Amino acid sequence: MGAVYLAASFQLMKQDVAANELIQQPFTNAIANVEYGRTWYWSYYYDPLVNNATVLEIVAKHFPKMLKDVPQSYWERLSKAVSDGYFQSHSASIIVLAVDAYATAAAQSAAGKISIGAIDKKGLVKALELPVQFMLATVPVPPETPRLKLGNQGDLPLFYSWSESGFERNLPAEAKSSGMEIIHEFLDAKGTPISEAEIGDEITVRVRVRATDRDQLQQVALADVLPGGMEPVLTAPSDTDDPDTPLWRQRLGGKSTWAIDYADIREDRVIFFGSVGRGMTEVTYKVKATNIGTFVVPAAYGEAMYERRIFGRSAAASFKIKPVSK
Questions:
Q1: How much is the pTM?
Q2: For residue 99, what are the contacts with CB-CB under 8 A and spacing of at least 6?
Q3: What whole-number percentage of the chain has pLDDT above 90?
Q4: Residues near 186 by Cβ (< 8 Å), separated by ≥ 6?
Q5: Which residue from 32, 285, 290, 323 has the fewest beta carbons nearer than 10 Å?
Q6: What are the tens digits of pLDDT across the range 144-169?
Q7: What is the pLDDT of residues 183-202, one digit of tens each?
Q8: With the C-alpha atoms ordered 169, 175, 177, 180, is the resulting torsion angle positive or negative?
Q9: What is the rounded end-to-end Cα distance, in angstroms, of the chain?
Q10: Model pLDDT, residue 161
């Protein structure tokens, strides 16, 4: 990677011969037809996605004429790696920089040569207006558009994505596991799982988690979102508390066999951070029933922060809070 930055420096100083000599081999390696996967996943913070995307960013900024040699397969491999979850915060940020640099170069050759139209169910095409700032353009599509028609007369390939937003119509009735299992329960004072309580009751939340495919998952974040009728019961720290006990532990209370590094306690959720082993571990804490009604219990969701393909969620449910019985 040092050769890539040095090549860019020579290019800025107009030393073209030295710059081209240094950039050729890293560029060739970056666009080589090598499949992404477990074999290339070097570490959490630096991997071929970071390396290859950085090379493309530098080439797009300082050697734009070389972009015509980037094969379609480069983008296909990169997008597949992202789709399969082989990315993390560092590689994601580098990919964004690379795509932005490529888009800047491609937009210059595509100015006035790009068209987009929405095709309705009758086959009629309605032209859509592209923004002036075309590098990363966002275009709203009419509802219920089954197809789009794109035209590119520029010198470089362009890429698009279609996204939809909204809310799930139905709750996930079944738990899902991809390398990690999560079980979420509400318990009464006897430790029995329950699905209803009376207003004012204190209820124990138990979240159990384990790795299913490995002995250890590093740096997992698990979000436990509470139903609308509950809120965490927090304990005020006292002078008798062990000074070495973290403040979040003192406030949250409960018990834990899961070696939690930190817990972010909010009004509507608790987010746990820590490593997860193959054995089933758990964490418990108290919540209070504050409103009467039947409430949706969102699925507890966990994910390895630097291995996005590793995740798990519990099944969603419902919980009924009743008036105090007479």
A1: 0.68
A2: 136
A3: 46
A4: 193, 194, 195, 197, 203, 204, 205, 206, 297, 319
A5: 323
A6: 788 888 887 777 777 777 777 777 77
A7: 999 999 899 999 999 999 99
A8: positive
A9: 73
A10: 76
The dihedral formed by the CA atoms of 239, 245, 248 and 249, expressed in degrees to the nearest 10: -100
Measured at the CA of 130, the angle between CA 128 and CA 133, to 5 degrees, comes to: 170
Starting at the earlier edge strand, list the strands of the sheet with 202-211: 180-187, 202-211, 281-289, 230-232
* Cα–Cα distance for residue pair 224/301, rounded to 1 Å: 7
Two tokens, residue 105 = 């170069």
Helices (H) and strands (E) in the chain, counts: 6, 16
- How far, rounded to the nearest angstrom, does the alpha carbon of residue 178 sit from its chain's CA centroid? 14
Of the candidates 244, 261, 263, the residue with the CA atom closest to the CA atom of residue 253: 263
Cα gap 239→32, rounded to integer Å: 62
Q: Which domains, ranges and CATH numbers included, belong to the chain? A: 2-110 (no CATH), 114-152 (no CATH), 176-322 (2.60.40.740)
User: How far is residue 269's CA from residue 251's CA, in Å, rounded to a whole number?
Assistant: 14
DSSP for 110-155 reads HTT-EEEEEE-TTS-EEE-PPPSS-TT------TT--EEEEEE-SS
The encoded tokens of residue 221 equal: 């974040």
Q: Give the three-class secondary structure for 179.
A: strand
Residue 26 amino acid letter: P
Q: Look at the block and give the residue holding tokens 């073209």.
A: 16
Q: How confident is the model at residue 135 (pLDDT cuts 50, 70, 90)?
A: low
Q: What percent of the chain has pLDDT over 70?
A: 92
